[in-house]
Specification:
The complex is a heterodimer of chains A (738) and B (757). Chain A is α+β, with helices and mostly antiparallel strands and 738 residues long. Helix content of chain A is 40%, strand content 9%. In chain A, the strands form 6 sheets. A 4-stranded mixed beta sheet of chain A has the order 2-10-9-6. Chain B has 6 domains: 30 residues; 87 residues, Immunoglobulin-like; 115 residues, Jelly Rolls, CATH 2.60.120; 147 residues, Sandwich (Jelly Rolls); 144 residues, Immunoglobulin-like (Sandwich), CATH 2.60.40; 59 residues. In chain B, helix 3 runs antiparallel to helix 4. The chains are: A alpha+beta (738), B mainly beta (757).
Amino acid sequence: MPSNNNGSRRRGLRASLFLPLVGAIFAAIDSPTLNASEPRVSFVNDVMPVLTKSGCNVGVCHAKAGGGQKGFQLSLLGFEPLEDFEHLVKEGRNRRLFPGAPDRSLLLLKASGQVPHGGGVRLEAASDGYAVLREWIRQGVPYDTEATPKFVSFEVQPSHGSIQRKAEQQLKVLAKYSDGSVRDITGMALYEANDKAMADVTDRGLVKISDIVGNVAVMVRYQGRVAVYSASIPLGAPVENMPPSKSFVDDLVFGNLKLLGIPASPVCDDSTFLRRVTLDIGGRLPTEEESAAFLASKDEAKRDNVVNDLLQSPDYADFFANKWTALLKNRRDDASDTVSNFAFHAWVRDSFLANKPYDQFVRELLAATGTVIGNPPVAWYKRVKEPKQQIEDVAQLFLGVRMQCAQCHHHPFERWSQDDYYSLTAFFSQVGRKPSGTRGEDLIFHKRGLATAANIKTAIALKPAALGDVIPEITADEDPRLKLADWMGGKHNAFFAKSLVNRYWKHFFVRGLIEPEDDIRDTNPPTNPALLEALEKHFITSGFDLKELVRIITQSRAYQLSEVPNQHNIVDRQNYSRYYPRRLQAEVLLDAIDRLAGTQTDFANLPPGTRAVALPDNSYNASSQFLRVFGRPEAESVCECERVQSSSLAQSLHLLNAAELKAKLASPTGRAERLAKEDKPAEAKIRELYLAAFSREPRPPELKTALDYLNEPGNATNANWQDLIWALINTKEFLFNH
Amino acid sequence: MTDFVFNSRRRSLFLTALIFGASLSLASPSFAQSVGLPAPRLLTTTPMGAKVGTQVEITISGEHIDDADELTFSDKRITAARKLDASGKPEANKYVVTVAADCPVGIHEARVMTRLGISSSRAFCVGTLDEAVRAAPNTTLATAMELKVNSICNAVMSARAADFYRFEATKGQRLIVDCATRGIDSKLDATVVIADAAGRDLLVERRGGALDFTAPADGKYVIKVHELTFKGGPAYYYRLGLSELSVGAPIVRLPATKPVNSFSWPPQGLKEQAELAEVEPNNDRMKAQKISLPCDITGSFFPAADVDVFEFEAKKGEVWWVEVASERFGLPTDPSLLVQHVARTGDAEKLTDVAELSDIPSPVKVSSNGYAYDGPPYNAGSADILGKLEIKEDGLHRLQLSDLFGGTRNDPKNVYRLVIRKAAPDFAVVAWALHMELRNGDRNAVSKPLALRGGATLALEVVAIRRDGFDGDIDLALEGLPEGVTASGLKIPAGQTRGLILVTANQNAPRAIGSATFLARGTINGEAVTRRGHMASHAWPIPDSWGEIPSPRLFADIPVSVSGLEFTPITLSPPKEMLTVTAGEKLTIPLLHTRRTEFSGGTLQLKTMGAGFDRTPPFDVTITADQSQAVLDTGALKTPPGDYLIAFYGGAVAKYRHRPDLVTTAEAAHKQATEELAVIDAELKKLIEAAKGAATDAKPEADKAVEAATAKHKTVTAAVTGAAEQVKKATAAAAPADIVDIIVSEPIAIRVNAPAK
């Protein structure tokens, strides 16, 4: 329910924060400065939340690794109260806190800006937080006793709801303590929306909804715990003439649209579909022959058939190998990497060609043993050498969980602790290495022994455990990585299938059901949970069949919607009520230009005609300005975000007048030269160009414009055909998958 | 960018090596020379094999084999004759090879005799399939070459391309596509693809396996072959076999050469077939297979993550030896074995590790294939198992065998043989040409043939795998050498694993070839035993170890030759008689230098090889002197009394002259032509004068004579020009070139006497 925001509200909140606090604390007084009747300030329950809310203990301030700031160290987001107490009370030659004159405490002087503070003013002297800290200091900086109530949990009210665009919702956050008490901590909790374009949240928990429809989540954090407020923002437009459902995908996409009142765009035409699906599955434009045949076909199942044909083709394997090898860091740093990179790329490509079940693919990678030539997934261990890096990559890429934070501290937005991190690391603790004949390459094997990894903080050796799930005892002889693979491929794994179907959904729909696609957590819920769950179930039931997943997605009506918005769904950015256009990837665009220009890009030491999507590693970026400008990744990260999909001036200039493009257009064996020489009506040639570029016939005005240009005196030359092709390349229709 | 980085690194390493080399020893050779005196190397034969019982024409290529004459094979049932042209003259590099009907199918060695001696060997295959040779480029679908079922095609891989073949198959027909590459000395790592008629990939093999293809429908299919990284050229040749196989029949791979470490398998007297086979399921303790010792079991690391568990009873104090072979079969496996004592109390078990065995270590440090030479690029060790099992307690023992490389792999072809026996002490030896640091990155010498120049001594490094506790001396010998060639074995002393053999051709050894036998002798349980050793080498010379990983293998035989026409740059000759020294005293050894060429630099740093003396500090001798001396301090070395055989060796830069005899020949030819020209010149002048003064009626005759003489003059002038060219060419070729090579002294026999008491 939206609430009013007025000047008195803040005062009210201040009172609601402090008075219950005061009222709740009637612990025994052991400080000489404290009367028995005075409420006692709890360091953990009162002081720590102030420090966290004020941002003192964020990573760039006093929780910065390696000593904090100016010698004052706090634990990140207050996960370690006892350590923070020690730092505050016992360090800094006791300058930080003066119980005799609390206002002279360096902590307060700095935080309130009374003395210069690099972090600026964090607490006004008149603020509630200042008062809490001051009172705690005055009481003699006590630490909590056994009797101090413990923070148990908190809840957000409301936890979810439907809310109109441009409306507001005041959240209320209530904390529960071990003594049964409940405290309103709305003013002390921290808030963050998962899509800031959809909702903004004030530091007092007021959610302000923008005009974008869909689902948005607000993460609420307090004392190391998290909760979520999920808002559904309907459009409320009349929803009629929804395309008929073909599968559960359509049921759930269209069902969600109905719920939100967002009418879907109609199903796209054949040309658009063929071009879209060929680009998305095969990473290439349809040939003129394919387009002509598809457009001419009256077969009702022709769309389903083309999906099946594409999935059977090596183009599918090439395109998805290109995607995965970048994520798996198939990176060339030295000439000696060449053989292993080719072998690894080929293994990935062949796996997709043979439609190896995804769980098997991951198993072969994770538990790889032997030599690179004998077993190419071993090359992953050449690239990712340390167990920590291995689990971080595995968690992010295959589980959609970012564990990096938990190496040094409890994950701030998640339930993952350092124990979780090191328990996962333990799976890779028995990876043995022997030198091979090839410089820089090791033979990988399971080193007999009990797998453990020590928590860097507690030094306790932890057995393998997988994100909270207990793994059956692993003996010294068993390779723990196989057990990890078993766990991943289990039918009830909460991450593995979900992560993959979300990643693939994003591949085809531009936006994942969870964004970013590799940051799956309770506080970042999917925009369509039922759809994600159904896809996950379908994928598992199919035996982790990747082609079947692609099939169910691309044969759906939802995938085949037009990109043209209607009067309502133009505001939709996450519910798939229309297709969201996307610029072609660097490699795909280069191949598409080559296809249209009738040329080939020459890649060093590869067969002439090798497509850019079939390149084995990143090394070709160095010699291709085109690939660099259009954002081909260098295979340094497991994040898809390494691929730059945004536009830039350099890209525009490149397409307009780069020497490389000009050379392609002017190639003596190129299409322009052929068309100029070919004895065929100009109209037929223009039709050929449009079919090649857009998989469609030219529209009458387009045909006329082109013919007029060519019919200008002296214009039907090679140069003019080049101009025409150049013009087509520079259209959005060509540059985008739409 | 990559190339730049690569080159910068190389350059930087090179400079580092240069600076260090210069600072460490001024006597070290400079780095501008080439490495290794010219050695004849047979590098390719086209085709690479023949069908048994047929005759085939073969073209050869290689290094320093321009003057090749006889082509021979390791099996005498393969013979060759020079191919003659229409005029009956031999055609260069062409031979007609006849494979007798009774010639065994498999890999044989081919080599040619040259002026410098016998060339290095090249694998030559004899098979039963019809042979074809790819004649025209086939790098597109349209130009795909037809390959008949049950035939094999010999081809050279096209660079930056795939080679295309097409074949027809009927629905359900089972076809095996196998591509021989590394196993026949090729540098090719093949990717083989079976595709549909449109060239769309159906089945891919990139790890050297065979493709087992059952045609889904009647029709045409395509085979594509390319190098993993799309390299190509003469060194990347292959034999592509397409054969029909009945459903269920086991695949028989095309023959391949043997890896170096296979020399240590099988143990002496092992039966060809194991007595027992593992019985699955035997993956855990509940299903352990009961055996009794001794045993000889065959099994397979299949399926993925297979663990084979066996149980046996044994008594405290028993000692067994365990050997597992799998990797030595050429398989990509790494067996690991654990034996535990099992103490049961009710259902509970207490397990105590008794032995954990894996890997047979290399007897010597193996090259890391870095830029600097840090050990021989031959691994005589293995991922297999050879170790001792000492029973500590009576009772049940559980043995589990697994493949450390088999966690995710499902291939029943990864077989093993497990032998547990009472101690049967024995040994196996393998030898290869000794290499040392000559120039960073260069491994040229490791692939050289045993082609000796007169006066040369060549050292072979020998390593032994000792079995079941054998600890005695191993004496080394090379027998069946050609006339004028002797071999001296620098034995492998008791408890050690490395020795040397010196093969010396005396200066007057006649041009000859012999097939040597490498023998190692020891005494086992008081009985003298002789074991035949193996010889290993590399398929290709490697001038840059940074860019190429060596690919060694065992060779079927050991041909040894003497050039008879060329001599080694320098011979270091000690006294022929045995030298004596009293233990604890110094021994001075005079060395006579027989120098046949000039050298770059004045000194030669020598190291000492041979047990008892190999820790002698390196010392310099003046290479330009006619003699020098070495001083060995038996006191410092603590050499015990006994008989020793040693030698000195080092790297020197010779001013090598290629065929100076050709200069003499060319000069003589030039001189003769010049003289002939002078004669014809004088004669022509005379005829011209005669023609001028000739009477009218004699004029036509005289003019005719002038014309004839002019023509002859022209011919002879051309001959003089040609001869001058030949002189120039021969002189240029014979110009001294700096070549660094290993110089080994003739062997030195030393007797160290016990000091008088």
